[in-house]
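Entry 14. Ran structure prediction on the chain below.
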Amino acid sequence: MPPKVIRKAEGRARKDARAEDIALAFMGVGPLPVDMIADDAIWERGQDAPTAGRLAIAKVFEALTAPDTITVDQVVTHGKAASVSGRLTRGAQERIFCHVIRHTSEAATQIAQIVSFEHTGGRQDG
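Output, structure tokens:
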């Protein structure tokens, strides 16, 4: 069963929607054409060693498991950079996430680097 996804950029600027699509793909939701990843791209994920190269990143994609729910709270794009953040759930655990995307050019057609974080921080009241 696909996860429930609440999108922030739906119906908004094309660049924002593209950044959101990329972030969702890096969480196992939706496709990401392999040619959108530069040959020498790097994907940094928390404590794991960075994954380097288009083919290595594509291989990691094959093993991704999508969360149960995803709520995108913020999408910011500027020049070659974009960030997408929000909340997700895996089972009963709520987590916060952020993907920082750097493209090879301002046209944002190829990904040079992505840095992904998930954290159990959640919301803190007071």
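The chain has a mean pLDDT of 89. Will compare against last week's run tomorrow.
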